[in-house]
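Re: [ENG-882] Designed sequences occasionally contain unexpected residues at chain ends

Forwarding the minimal case from QA. Structure tokens:
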């Protein structure tokens, strides 16, 4: 976390500043798409977003064990310690884990309901024992805690142009869309952990079971039944994106470019999966750098325009066509002046 971001967020305590900075590093290392999109936010909001995602990443790292060196009992104990620290933080007591301290501080600053964190931790505990989900309904219960509540936590931080409760269903749907994308992209890696997140009934409808997936993973062989099942899972995921998309327009205009960028880049993963023949059992789909840069630059232009309009409003100056200014147009950039350069620096730090 940069000092400027922490200053803008009003974080002055040295331990908390270090805690927020650690969360930012977690996001930079684990979530390239999220981290890139977050840099489009206004400077005062970034630390809170990093805290929320950093807490989620820290918990996820506890329950995941790719190298097989940490026993289930050890991971369960570590998660129990995380939960105990979270409970102490909610009571206003000091905690040692930076991710907990930063997330608890963000929760208090933005009035995020505590049950959205307890639901998340409950789903993390499921990852210690649950290896598959029979139906989409069962999976949805898990995803409420592991994904939907992340979207709900973000709403107060991002701000809305409507009553918060109107934006929340869309935010929850977007969290689920992102996670379904992860599930599809990471089929092979999840198999290595012993998990299958795609619903068993969806797989069975195409003649796929755990044994077939493991055979494909181990041998590198393709099977048309697996391709068909992965295509169906992608179709379900695209439907959730369509459900979530209208909610982006309900966010504060200075926040929506960030979420739009994440939306486009994550949905693009589905296009890459399709282009690669749904070979997710064998390799992880990645959006290429040129596409990522193009989407990010478009988001930057929209973010600059939104900040310019807000700058005019705060100074009591008449905006030109208000938010109908075309993002990145000569009028918008010229009118921004020094403010444009400052905002560009914020998004590109």
């Amino acid at each position: 976390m940069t000092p400027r971001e922490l200053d803008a967020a009003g974080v002055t305590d040295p331990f908390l500043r270090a805690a927020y900075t650690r969360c930012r590093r977690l996001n930079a290392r684990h979530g390239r798409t999220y981290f890139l999109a977050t840099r489009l936010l206004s400077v005062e909001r970034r630390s809170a977003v990093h805290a929320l995602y950093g807490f989620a990443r820290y918990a996820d790292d506890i329950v995941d064990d790719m190298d097989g060196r940490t026993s289930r009992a050890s991971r369960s104990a570590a998660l129990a310690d995380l939960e105990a620290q979270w409970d102490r933080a909610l009571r206003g007591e000091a905690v040692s884990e930076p991710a907990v301290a930063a997330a608890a501080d963000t929760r208090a600053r933005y009035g995020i309901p505590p049950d959205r964190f307890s639901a998340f931790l409950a789903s993390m505990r499921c990852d210690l024992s649950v290896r598959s989900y029979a139906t989409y309904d069962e999976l949805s219960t898990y995803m409420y805690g592991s994904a939907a509540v992340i979207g709900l936590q973000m709403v107060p931080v991002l701000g809305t142009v409507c009553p918060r409760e109107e934006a929340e269903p869309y935010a929850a749907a977007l969290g689920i869309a992102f996670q379904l994308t992860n599930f599809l992209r990471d089929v092979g890696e999840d198999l290595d952990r012993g998990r299958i997140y795609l619903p068993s009934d969806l797989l069975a409808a195409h003649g796929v079971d755990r044994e077939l997936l493991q055979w494909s993973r181990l041998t590198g062989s393709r099977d048309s039944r697996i391709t068909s099942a992965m295509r169906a899972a992608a179709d379900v995921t695209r439907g959730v994106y369509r459900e979530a998309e209208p909610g982006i327009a309900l966010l504060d205009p200075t926040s929506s470019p960030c979420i739009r960028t994440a939306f486009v880049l994550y949905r693009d993963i589905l296009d890459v999966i399709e282009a690669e023949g749904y070979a997710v059992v064998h390799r992880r789909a990645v959006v290429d750098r040129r596409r990522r840069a193009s989407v990010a630059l478009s988001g930057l232009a929209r973010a600059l325009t939104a900040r310019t309009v807000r700058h005019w409003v705060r100074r009591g100056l008449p905006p030109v066509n208000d938010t109908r200014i075309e993002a990145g147009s000569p009028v918008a950039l010229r009118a921004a002046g020094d403010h444009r350069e400052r905002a560009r620096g914020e998004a590109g730090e």
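QA comment: On inspection the terminal residues look reasonable. The radius of gyration is 21 Å. Proposing we downgrade this to a documentation issue.
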